[in-house]
Specification:
There is one protein chain. By secondary structure, the protein is of the alpha+beta class. It has one domain: Cyclophilin (Beta Barrel). It is built from 4 helices and 11 strands. The strands form 2 sheets. Strands 3-11-1-2-10-7-8-5-4 form a 9-stranded antiparallel sheet. A two-stranded antiparallel sheet has the order 6-9. The N terminus is likely disordered.
């Protein structure tokens, strides 16, 4: 039942209200023949990512907490002043390295991450299982 409620909240975009963010745009993440949805927050940092799309990424493990992917070029974010609390399914930008992060676990970050959006459990599992397969991120139409 809890899983059903979480999926319903994500689908309705209410998770953003609960976490203090507002959803702005849905993205499509294509891995192989499958397509998944990522919901971006309504923020200037998320808009910077939107401006770079579409983009092809290859995710890799970074420890046990996350899978990361290099963007073709950095987002023009030089610093971020707040620590953030990420959860499984958070999409973030790591300012020092300029890469995207998909979090596999809940995590309290120092001031080096910018939260961009979130994804449901099926999308997290697809990223976890993608190996070195290429993934395409684009604006959902």
């Amino acid at each position: 039942m809890q899983n059903f409620v979480q999926k319903a909240l994500l689908t309705a975009g209410l998770t953003a209200v609960l976490t203090g963010g507002t959803m702005a745009q849905d993205l499509e993440l294509s891995i192989g023949a499958n397509t998944y949805t990522i919901s971006l927050y309504d923020s200037k940092e998320a808009q910077l990512l939107l401006d770079k799309l579409p983009v092809t990424l290859t995710f890799e493990n970074f420890g046990r907490n996350e899978r990361i992917a290099d963007l073709p070029s950095r987002l023009p974010i030089t610093s971020y002043k707040e620590s953030v609390e990420v959860k499984r399914g958070s999409l973030a930008y790591y300012v020092p390295w300029g890469n995207l992060c998909v979090f596999r676990v809940n995590y309290q970050s120092p001031n080096d991450l910018v939260l961009l959006g979130e994804m449901d459990e099926a999308t997290v599992k697809a990223v976890e299982q993608s190996g070195s397969q290429q993934a395409t991120l684009r604006i959902k139409e």
